[in-house]
Design a protein that fits this description.
Elements (H helix, E strand, L loop, with lengths): L3 E5 L6 H9 L4 E5 L11 E5 L3 H8 L10 H22 L4 H9 L7 E4 L3 H6 L9 E4 L9 H11 L4 E6 H6 L13 E7 L16 H8 L7 H6 L3 E5 L2 H11 L7 E6 L5 H11 L2
Parallel strand pairs: 1-2, 2-3, 4-5, 4-6, 6-7, 7-9, 8-9
């Protein structure tokens, strides 16, 4: 158990991290920052209403160096998991997980990365993200609404090029956001289309039934092609690694109109690949 857990920023997305630190509670939880302090681990006892840099500048002179194997142990664990992570990706089929690896390895430096809620942000947190990117997500009450609107608004107000990565349901749910005259030419959208709310396949329950497909996964056969044409986006679609590599090599280049790349993945394999990942990295 840790003696003290320091948190800053907003809510933690990962349920696994939250569950771990609730089961193995720290003695103290200190939150640093001017935002609301969330008692995520049920032991919050101090809140420092200041910037992170000012806190550590004042706090570090009071620390006492200690000889310990704690850091070296966890660094070894981190390196082991990093290697297992890459080995797993190298051997999996073309699925959502593989697509995220391709995307995150190709986004140019110093772009703004907007990420839709639900499965998209959950996948993203499993990867090392280029530190030059600004990353944002509509992480409110876990709904998918408004992600496209937020991304477009951010693209308009930011001089940096913007990439928006989204799932199909989130994109179609907020497709009306494309109906405006101010979308920058350097705005890019990648829609990962697995024909439904694939995240529900990860949860316990009866899959591949009429009720599951209709009420939970919301199966569909929609594409973004006609929306792209209607709203003046350059459109491309891919459904395998080779075509995805080719498309991404051109996707970020300057153009006279915004671009949308739709990536089709198999709806029935994504959950299996994701669940096996957590076992593979141990």
């Amino acid at each position: 158990k840790p003696d003290i857990v320091l948190t800053f920023g907003g809510l933690i997305v990962s349920k696994k991290i939250k569950r771990f630190l609730r089961d193995y509670q720290p003695k103290h939880h200190w939150h640093i920052g001017k935002q609301k302090a969330n008692d995520t681990f049920f032991v919050l006892d101090k809140v420092f209403k200041q910037t992170e840099n000012s806190f550590f500048k004042a706090f570090l002179p009071f620390t006492i160096p200690n000889q310990s194997k704690y850091a070296s142990f966890w660094l070894l664990q981190f390196e082991k998991r990093r290697k297992n992570h890459q080995n797993y990706i190298d051997h999996i089929a073309f699925t959502d997980f593989k697509v995220f690896d391709f995307i995150l390895n190709t986004v140019p430096n110093n772009w703004q990365l907007q990420v839709s809620n639900s499965s998209t942000i959950r996948y993203l947190q499993l990867f090392d993200v280029n530190p030059t990117l600004e990353v944002f997500c509509n992480r409110g009450t876990s709904g998918i609404d408004g992600s496209t609107s937020t991304a477009i608004g951010a693209a308009i107000s930011n001089t940096k090029p913007t990439l928006f990565v989204t799932g199909d349901l989130s994109f179609f749910y907020d497709s009306n956001a494309l109906w405006n005259n101010y979308i920058p030419k350097n705005f890019r959208i990648i829609v990962i289309n697995n024909e439904g709310g694939g995240i529900f396949r990860i949860l316990p329950g009866h899959k591949n039934t009429t009720n599951f497909d209709y009420y939970f996964e919301t199966k569909h056969h929609l594409t973004a092609e006609h929306l792209s044409k209607m709203y003046g986006f350059e459109y491309a679609r891919v459904n395998n690694e080779t075509h995805l590599k080719e498309a991404l090599s051109e996707f970020y280049k300057p153009s006279n109109q915004p671009k949308l790349l739709e990536v089709f993945t198999p709806s029935t394999k994504n959950d299996e690949v994701l669940l096996k990942y957590f076992k593979a990295i141990k």
